[in-house]
Amino acid sequence: MEFTLIDGKTKFQFPVKPEELTISRSKGYETINMLEYGEFDFAQGEKVKEITFSSFFPKEYDASYCMYEPLPDPRVAMNMLNTFLVSKKPLRFIITNTGVNVPVYLISHNTTFRGGESGDIYFDITLRTWRDSKVEKVGGATSASKSGSRTDLKTSSKTYTVKSGDSLSKIAKLELGSSSKWNEIYKLNAKTIGSDPNRIKPGQKLVMP
């Protein structure tokens, strides 16, 4: 099992296999606060994964744990990780004999020097999987959208066209099941109806609760 980072034509294989690797996954969601109804959560799909592991760059080759030889100089290897860290291009992270073959950014790199182990350099890194975004034009404007659709939170309002002989109580009975709910209709349409809820006119379009 080999752990490799690839940057274009540059291939960097970690000389010592990590003892463990952690892949963090989580689900994104958006909370909407709707008046009178409280909060609602809307799922937005899986968040970007984070991959973390620790290992070291040995100064001397040891067949019991080193993956290959000749070994890279520990300081040169550490500088290579620093180069990956500041790069603005995604890398390719591959673990052979597994399903891990993903584009990533190296977002964190911590180095440790231990007393008594002169020349060895220990490190832990965090990789964050990268997803391309699609750019599309909407109504003449350019917008970026991530792959996958997002739930449309807008709902079309139901309307009622006033007929001759209608009253708010009658409309409430027909549309809402109770004539006592006429006041809910009036609150939503006060600007259209005016100050007197009894004076509705045929042809008016009223927004329904």
UniProtKB/TrEMBL annotation:
Origin superkingdom: Bacteria
Alphabetized Gene3D superfamilies for the sequence: LysM domain
Transmembrane segments: none
LysM domain: residues covered: 158-208
UniProt-listed InterPro entries: Bact_Kbp (IPR052196), LysM (IPR018392), LysM_dom_sf (IPR036779)
Protein's UniProt name: Terminase
Organism in which the protein naturally occurs: Paenibacillus xylanivorans
